[in-house]
Amino acid sequence: MIVLPLAAYLIAFCTPALAQVGPSTLTMSCQQAHALVASQGAIVLRTGPITYDRYVISPAFCMRAETTEPTWVPTADTPQCFIGYVCRQTDVERGN
Fold first, then answer.
1. What secondary structure letter does DSSP report for 24?
2. Residues 4-36: pLDDT tens digits?
3. Cα 2 to Cα 8: distance, rounded to the nearest angstrom
4. Would the pTM of this model clear 0.85, i.e. be above it?
């Protein structure tokens, strides 16, 4: 059967690639991470071995029903680096 060897190949060789979402902030300086977000406008960055998020430079990169929330991430040179914002849904009931 060809299906079993193909499945084993996909599990062994493709899974690690799927886990690598984007560049890691842990390998960049704070200034480099902030500059990357600023230059791209919006980018997915890894902040740890299994953590990642989409970071934006302004609300223009969020959906209509979203707002920005400031965010700090670990980088190679600091544990708390402001790199921009994350998009979060607004609380319609409170008018935010």
1. B
2. 555 555 555 554 545 566 899 999 999 999 999
3. 10
4. no
Q: Which residue bears the tokens 């299906």? A: 3
Sheet containing 52-56: give its strands across.
42-46, 52-56, 81-89, 66-73
Residues in the chain: 96
What is the pairing mode between strands 52-56 and 42-46?
antiparallel
Structure tokens at 86: 């994350």
Contacts of 23 (CB under 8 A, 6+ apart): 36, 43, 45, 46
Q: What is the pLDDT of residues 67-90, one digit of tens each?
A: 999 999 999 999 999 999 999 998
CA dihedral 7, 11, 13, 18 (to 10 degrees): 130
